[in-house]
Amino acid sequence: MPLVLLIAWQLAAMRLDAPWLLPLPSRILEQFCHPLRSHFSSGSLASNTIISLLRVSIGFTLAAVVGVCFGLFAGSIKPVRNLFEPILEILRPLCPIAWLPFAIAVFKLKTLPNLLGIEYSRTIFDQVQLGMIFVIFIGGFFPVFINTVDGVSGVRQNLILLGKTLGASKVQIFVRIHLPAAMPQILTGLRQGLGLCWFVIIAAEMMVGADSGIGYLLMYAADNSAMDVVIVCMLIIGAVGAAMNHLMRRCMHRYVSWKGKEF
Amino acid sequence: MERKRILAVNTGTHTSKPNIHPSIIRLEHVGKDFTTESGKRIAVLDDINLDIKTGQLVTVVGATGTGKTTLLNLIASICKADQGRITLNKTLNICNEIAYVFQHYTLLPWQNVLKNVAFGLQLRKIPIRQRNDDAMKLIDKVGLAGFEKAYPHELSGGMRQRAAIAQALAIKPKLLLMDEPFGSLDDTTRTELQRMLIDLHRQTQTTTIFVTHNIDEAIILADRIVVLAQRPAVIQQDITIDLPRPRNRTSRQFTDIYLKIRNMITTKEVIE
Question: Which CATH number is B2-97+173-271 given?
Answer without folding.
Answer: 3.40.50.300
